[in-house]
Design goal:
It contains eleven helices and eight strands. It is α+β, with helices and mostly antiparallel strands. 28% of the residues are buried.
Length: 274
């Protein structure tokens, strides 16, 4: 058993543009996409930028704004096109890019708030199938502060978590014995764990796989990287922002990091509710 203090998040998947399909569409309609073609001439793929080019394709599909073969380039540049979609709140277009995140070292409290963001897909660690005997606990920022102000109160919190794990372990054993008439070991363990988990606190660490489109990512950051959000989920949202800022910066156009008086970070957006 251990105690953790910081949420962790990693980008584990992002969009890939199928170039052959794009070119077939352009050729069938007599269109050209000079900026994309120039980029492809210098590389086999678009690198990290596939999602951004897919979003531009979605935006251009609405207005068929590609130049015809032989025409000069028209319309906005690639970067300006996506920035314009955000500025005019044409959010449906940026939904075409999806991102996959692995998230861990978060509390059950945080995950209960996270899954309220319904425009996302979630696969979370199951307490019914996974043994929690060696579970970790997430120390909330306020409890971390309490360690310096009131060590006895902090110790009380730690002891409560430790006790809950011990009770969980004892209950799991007793419940497994109660279900000894069930032939399947898996079913017996599942029934025992689903009842015993009731004693574990909201601070129990969990892990979750999340898929969000670029619009949902912006919405999550706007709400949860806000100063009024819970400190733990704000830390997660700021980390998500930094990942997208690094991997697909056009999707966080108009967003910037600021610091609060306590030294923690938050994200300000000049284009809200895209």
């Amino acid at each position: 058993m251990s105690f953790v203090t910081e949420p962790e998040i990693a980008l584990v998947g992002k969009p890939i543009m199928e170039i052959d399909g794009v070119m077939k569409f352009l050729e069938d309609h007599g269109y050209q996409w000079p900026e994309l073609e120039k980029k492809l001439d210098s590389m086999v793929s678009l690198g990290d930028d596939d999602g951004e080019w897919l979003v531009e394709m979605g935006g251009r599909m609405c207005y068929q704004s590609w130049p015809k073969q032989g025409e000069t380039k028209k319309g906005r540049s690639h970067d300006a096109h996506i920035q314009h979609l955000i500025e005019v709140a044409h959010g449906a277009c940026i939904e075409h890019a999806n991102f996959n995140f692995a998230i861990w070292n978060i509390s059950r409290s945080l995950s209960h708030e996270l899954v309220r963001h319904r425009l996302a897909s979630y696969s979370q660690l199951s307490q019914r199938y996974v043994d929690s005997s060696s579970v970790s606990f997430v120390v909330p920022p306020a409890i971390q502060e309490l360690a310096n102000i009131d060590p006895d109160a902090y110790r009380m919190w730690i002891e409560h978590c430790e006790k809950s794990r011990q009770v969980y372990e004892e209950l799991t054993t007793k419940l497994s014995n109660m279900y000894d008439d069930i032939e399947s070991n898996l079913e017996r363990r599942k029934k025992a764990r689903q009842a015993a988990r009731s004693v574990l606190p909201n601070a129990t660490e969990t892990k979750i796989f999340v898929t969000m489109n670029a619009r949902a990512v912006r919405h999550f950051i706007e709400l949860r990287a806000n100063p009024s959000a819970d400190v733990e989920i704000r830390s997660l949202a700021v980390k998500m922002y930094k990942i997208i800022q690094n991997k697909a910066p056009l999707f966080v156009h108009g967003m910037t990091i600021s610091k609060l008086d306590d030294g923690t970070e938050w994200v300000e957006s000049s284009h809200r509710r895209v």
